[in-house]
Amino acid sequence: MNPAVLRAWEKRYGVVVPSRTEGGQRLYSDDDVLRLSLLHRAVEEGRAISQVAPLSTEELKGLVKEDEAERASFTGPEPIDGPSPARILERAQRAVDKMEPGELEKILTRGAMAFSVSTIIEEIVVPLLGLIGRGWESGRLRPAQEHLASVEIRRFLEWMLGTVNRSEGAPVLVSGTPAGERHELGAIISAITGAAEGWDSVYLGPDLPAEEIVLAALRLEAEVVALSCVDPSIVDTFPEEIGKVRERLPADVQLVVGGPAVNGRPEVQALEGVEVLADFQELRTRLRESGP
User: Fold this and answer.
1) Measured between alpha carbons, how far is 173 from 194 in angstroms, rounded to an integer?
2) Three-state DSSP class for 199?
3) What is the pLDDT of residues 37-95, one digit of tens each?
4) pLDDT tens-digit map of 174-224
5) Using CA atoms, how far apart are residues 73 and 62, in angstroms rounded to an integer?
6) 85-162: what fold?
7) Would you identify the CATH topology of the domain 3-73?
8) So what's the pLDDT on residue 258?
């Protein structure tokens, strides 16, 4: 089980209260381990942790038996090692189409239990956002479907950012979006990516003037500033806004930008001291090269 998720369950839901050694290490009893195992299995079956955390251990045993019996009745059972990222993505898209936010939450949470942060982001969340965006542009998805899905995905990403450990004394990454850019999911994902790589990630929010981004970076002593640029309707403003940030940042602070509104644009690529990244995998690589 992912240790970051386990700590989040303990902190948010009080699922178990382990004892501690004199050195502060957690000690889990046999009952604790059983309860956590049952919770994990319930979530893997598609239950939301918020729904099952209040249940007693005996109630969890009964719930898990019901879920396993229901799954065994399916004609097309999952592989023995659980669903693939592609299957999780398929189910998430179906939940978006049906406007089922609760189901979408369960599916994404199940993915978070089963896969690494990079897999969740790069093989599930980012492709899902692409499918939603193309569905909205083509008219296959109605605005209500797109908005409902975006709200649920944002909630999930914020939960992820809260569960990934921040290492004490780690270098700081701040992320956000430039002035005028209100699409924030890419910036949140950048913060999650940084935290997963051992950085102390701070998400500033969307639509920030250059001077505010720089102020936060200076006060937090950031080593990297990551900006997400998505909105095609204000694409012509990005080079100037990014340039303002670069001019005001110290030379030793890295400025990385990404998103469809800046990728491949020569005006941005020509900015000195600004690195344009094609995707979150490139961001991971850059942070590993510069990281703790």
Assistant:
1) 7
2) coil
3) 998 888 777 677 777 889 999 999 998 888 777 666 544 444 445 678 999 999 999 99
4) 999 999 999 999 999 999 999 988 899 999 999 999 999 999 999 999 999
5) 17
6) 1.10.1240
7) Multidrug-efflux Transporter Regulator; Chain: A; Domain 2 (1.10.1660)
8) 95
- C-alpha 265/C-alpha 253 separation (Å) is 22
Q: What is the C-alpha separation between 216 and 229, in angstroms, rounded?
A: 19
What is the rounded CA–CA span in Å between residue 40 and residue 58?
15
pTM listed for this prediction: 0.73
Q: How confident is the model at residue 1 (pLDDT cuts 50, 70, 90)?
A: low
34: CB partners within 8 A, 6+ apart: 57
Mean pLDDT of 234-241: 93
Which segments of the chain belong to CATH 1.10.1660.10? Answer: 3-73
Q: Which CATH class is domain 166-290?
A: alpha beta
Residues 210 and 179: their CA atoms lie apart, in Å, by 7
How far is 22 from 183, CA to CA, in rounded Å?
47
Amino acid identity of residue 133, one-letter, is: G
